Amino acid sequence: MKTAVVLLSGGMDSATLAYVAQDRGYGIIALHVNYGQRTEAKERQCAQRIAALLGAVEFFEVDIGYLARIGASALTDHAIPVMDYSDTDEELPATYVPFRNANLLSLATSLAEARGAEAIFIGAQASDYSGYPDCREEFMEAFQQVIDRGTRETTRIQLVAPFVHMNKAEILRIGLTLDVPYHETWSCYRNEKKACGRCGACHFRREAFRQVGVPDPIPYGGE
Fold first, then answer.
1. CATH number of the domain at 3-212, please?
2. Cβ-count burial of 177 within 10 angstroms (0-12 exposed, 13-18 middle, 19+ buried)?
3. Which of 85, 154, 201, 202 is the most exposed place for a label (fewest CB within 10 A)?
4. What is the pLDDT of residues 58-70, one digit of tens each?
């Protein structure tokens, strides 16, 4: 069986991504990264559950707490508040983790080459999320060149970002056709028991479910 390293955070996009990869015929090597994010315990629990439901070939965890020590993000620095979503903000939100995807993809490339995997799947989507620069198609294309030039000549790893031009509702529709268990996913930036419903991640998740016309199965109301 061909295999793919799938970056599996435990969120709804990454869960959908893993189901898409399996639907394309890949055995899943689930890569979960702890970079010091506020809701890591809940995210890890969700990622483990999704991997188990998919019968993943491997669940591989990496701790890169240095991103928290670097700071400059509300996701990793508790001194920086996670703000409520606002559609009037013109700058990047405080939840942007500087150059995070480059770090994640570097780890994924190492794992993929070591395991002989044919692909790396990442759930980045830039069309309506938060405008993170490392979620753009241009970044993915550039990193494919990094993979090609930085691995053995015999190594062939394809970087797959199937959602890069999709919004969250479009991703959700795909996931529903694949029976993704969204009750086993988590998106909230603030809380681990009940989602706050107000941060950027909660906003886009709730809006996607509203647009598709199905209820969101996770609990809301946390403070």
1. 3.40.50.620
2. exposed
3. 154
4. 999 999 999 999 9
